[in-house]
Specification:
- The chain is an alpha/beta fold.
- The chain folds into two domains: 2-152, NAD(P)-binding Rossmann-like Domain (Rossmann fold), CATH 3.40.50.720; 162-252, ProC C-terminal domain-like (ProC C-terminal domain-like fold).
- It is built from twelve helices and seven strands.
- A five-stranded mixed β-sheet has the order 3-4-5-6-7.
- Bound molecules: 1,4-dihydronicotinamide adenine dinucleotide (NAI) and (2S)-3,4-dihydro-2H-pyrrole-2-carboxylic acid (A1CAB).
- Residues 1-2, 23-26, 45, 58-61, 63, 67, 83-85, 106-109, 160 line the site of 1,4-dihydronicotinamide adenine dinucleotide.
- Residues 149-253 form the Pyrroline-5-carboxylate reductase dimerisation domain.
- It catalyses: L-proline + NADP(+) = (S)-1-pyrroline-5-carboxylate + NADPH + 2 H(+); L-proline + NAD(+) = (S)-1-pyrroline-5-carboxylate + NADH + 2 H(+).
- It comes from Iocasia fonsfrigidae.
- Its main location: cytoplasm.
């Protein structure tokens, strides 16, 4: 996820590569350094955060405590942005200096192609400038919305993890096309563009998805036969339960 954000941020022009230091214990130096002139790479988190104004943490929730403990002495007066699922603002505040402002963000991987959506929530000591900064950083990679912290687990279950559910839908649609005789490549193209087009219809017309579904569904036609199958097999119930399961897992990660 860190790489998706990094590449989206640089390519959208939100930040130039020569202002960024990437720290990762497993660095793929050649790849990023070759691609983005001036970007600095290190495996030393402590070194990386020393002279900067903004620190963005993109490690797994399970290693966050160790990473924070290692860098906490360099976080005074800095803006800390974290994209870790589940971890509350309070869980960081236990470790970082009081003067450190924290913004918790839940992005998603389509940020890589500037079609992401990120939700964020900020600590009380975050300034208007901090909010502006995070918005300008993330707006280059897609939509951005501010939410109350108690909604972050639900956001994680929906838009954070959601791209995976939709990739499964696209893969399954393509399999269906292949089953009915379409070549794989054509089938995948038809599937992906259908998902993209349907999403655009919801966003651009503002119509209820049920109403848009009805527009496709001719009486006695092909679509209603498929809708009957999807209802029998529990597509909508499965999606609702999937979002719930992921949101509950997000909550568990804070324990
Ligand atoms: N993958 C996704 O779609 C999303 C992930 N997130 C959050 O992003 C974070 C990263 O998740 P992924 O990108 O999926 O995991 P990942 O395993 O692909 O990336 C984590 C990176 O952290 C590095 N790393 C591990 N320990 C480190 C340490 N001590 N110091 C410096 N670097 C270290 C790893 O080498 C790796 O490159 C998680 O907190 C996750 O909850 C948030 C939204 C979406
Ligand atoms: O699977 C995960 O835990 C991360 C958080 C949201 C998307 N991926």
């Amino acid at each position: 996820m860190g790489t998706s954000l990094l590449e989206g941020i640089i390519e959208s022009g939100s930040y130039s590569a020569d202002k960024i230091i990437v720290s990762d214990i497993k660095l793929d130096n050649d790849k990023l350094e070759g691609k983005y002139q001036g970007i600095k790479m290190t495996t030393d988190n402590k070194e990386a955060v020393k002279g900067v104004d903004v620190v963005l943490l993109a490690v797994k929730p399970q290693v966050m405590a160790a990473v924070l403990d290692n860098i906490k002495n360099s976080l005074a007066n800095k803006l800390l942005i974290t994209i870790a699922a589940g971890l509350s603002l309070a869980s960081y505040q236990k470790t970082v200096p009081d003067s450190c402002r924290i913004i918790r963000v839940m992005p998603n991987t389509p940020s890589l192609v500037k079609e992401g959506i990120s939700a964020f929530t900020a600590s009380e000591n975050a300034s208007k400038e901090d909010l502006k900064q995070v918005k300008s950083l993330l707006k280059g990679v897609g939509e951005i919305v501010e939410v109350k912290e108690e909604l972050m687990d639900a956001v994680t279950g929906l838009s954070g993890s959601g791209p995976a559910y939709i990739y499964m839908v696209i893969e399954a649609l393509a399999d269906g096309g292949v089953l009915m005789g379409l070549p794989r490549e054509l089938s995948q193209k038809l599937a992906a563009q259908t998902v993209l087009g349907a999403a655009r219809m919801v966003i651009e017309t503002g119509q209820h998805p049920g109403e848009l579904k009805d527009m496709v569904t001719s009486p006695g036609g092909t679509t209603i036969r498929a809708v009957e199958v999807l209802e029998e097999k529990g597509l909508r119930g499965s999606m609702i339960q999937a979002v719930k399961a992921a949101a509950e897992r997000s909550k568990e990660l804070n324990n």
